[in-house]
Write a structure and sequence with these properties.
This protein is an alpha/beta fold. The protein has 15 helices and 13 strands.
Length: 380
């Protein structure tokens, strides 16, 4: 087809794939698009379940996963691999998502070859270049070279307009594609007794009606800050009878803090329990979100997703590039302050009903973002 556009979608981490997957699905439905799925591959083990669930495999895989890999090495290897791939395929658009080092490297590679870059989830800012690190720098740098800034919210688009972005680029508010994926997966869980049973079987010792879902992985929290958070978890289950489900990030810095703080933890000495597990796959994470009382997290994606299920979040960071959740009443910034984490968590545990009226709508999207983005890329 003479008017067919070639669009290359680049991802490498699980959060990226979650938000790029619905775009690939939409693009492959469209006869006017040749869609190329390009994985940098640094979260290979976390991506396989999603590939199987959605019946999609990458067309290109750099396989850059290495233990404890440095950001410098990842950036250099991604740029080298992308350079060759772009020379070969010459896409009309390179689509990158979010703020990873691989997204930044892919965007820069496209820029050097004068290939237009579409930045999905553009415009998020904390205006603290070290928080989160290196994500804040990555997304700002991608914004300098992107032609299409595809923003999840109005606030994100205003950030870009206030920064006086390049005149050859344009800004669109599309909503967040992660909500598209979340709704697809949630509907499949609700319609599948097997998926529900598999989760229940995996966590037979979890009080499915009374638990907090926790994730923690940010580099700026490594060391003492994470240890403060973990000590707060122990005090919470000392004061209240509630489970904490804690899927542990594989990063050795995270595991070291857990080992140091919880080495003497004995469940029988507490009212509640901390249940440690290896990382949940995305399907299990969605199920856990649907069932938990509330979340404590330093994740950006969970701040966006949990409001779909009406869930409150305590954000284990001092700043957030997602203020919409705070403004809507879903999120509270507690940082890594021991006392604040405990007091805020106890307050939520002791509140039987979080919302006095209707649950607010998710400020990050309604599940139709992917189609909007594909239409924008075809028209430009």
């Amino acid at each position: 087809m003479t008017n067919q556009k070639t669009i290359m979608f680049v991802f490498g981490t699980r959060p990226e794939l979650i938000k790029v997957m619905p775009l690939i699905i939409e693009a492959r439905k469209n006869p006017n698009i040749k869609a190329i799925a390009c994985s940098t591959g640094q979260h290979k083990d976390m991506l396989n379940n999603l590939y199987a669930f959605f019946d999609i495999q990458p067309d290109i895989d750099f396989k850059l996963m290495k233990p404890n890999q440095s950001l410098l090495n990842l950036h250099a290897e991604t740029m080298n691999a992308m350079h060759l791939v772009l020379l070969d395929h010459k896409p009309d658009w390179v689509v990158v998502q979010g703020d990873t080092t691989s997204a930044h490297a892919a965007a820069m590679s496209a820029f050097y070859q004068k290939i237009p870059v579409a930045h999905v989830e553009a415009g998020l800012r904390t205006y603290d270049i070290h928080s989160p690190f290196p994500e804040e720098m990555n997304r700002r740098a991608i914004g300098l070279v992107a032609k299409a800034h595809l923003c999840p919210t109005l606030d994100a688009s205003l950030n870009l307009k206030n920064e006086l972005i390049d005149l050859s680029s344009f800004v669109e508010v599309t909503g967040n594609t992660g909500i598209d994926t979340l709704k697809i997966v949630s509907a499949k869980i609700d319609s599948s007794e097997n998926l529900q049973k598999s989760f229940a079987d995996k966590f037979t010792n979890l009080d499915i009606r009374n638990f907090i879902l926790v994730t923690m992985h940010r580099r700026e929290n490594f060391g003492k800050a994470q240890q403060n958070v973990l000590k707060a978890f122990l005090e919470i289950i000392h004061k209240r009878q509630i489970d904490i489900l804690f899927p542990m990030h594989p990063n050795p810095n995270v595991r070291k803090s857990i080992d140091e703080v919880l080495k003497d933890y004995k469940p029988e000495d507490y009212k509640g329990r901390i249940i440690l597990t290896d990382p949940l796959d995305y399907i299990e994470m969605v199920y856990a979100m649907k069932k938990c009382r509330f979340l404590m997290t330093d994740s950006g994606g969970l701040q966006e997703e949990a409001p779909t299920f009406g869930k409150k979040l305590l954000v284990l960071r001092n700043s957030t590039e997602r203020p919409e959740g705070v403004n809507a009443g879903f999120s509270e910034l507690v940082g890594t302050d021991y006392d604040k984490i405990i007091s805020s968590a106890i307050s939520l545990i002791d509140t039987p009903q979080y919302w006095t009226g209707a649950v607010p709508a998710n400020p990050y999207g309604d599940g139709t973002s992917s189609q909007k983005i594909i239409d924008i890329l075809l028209k430009n």
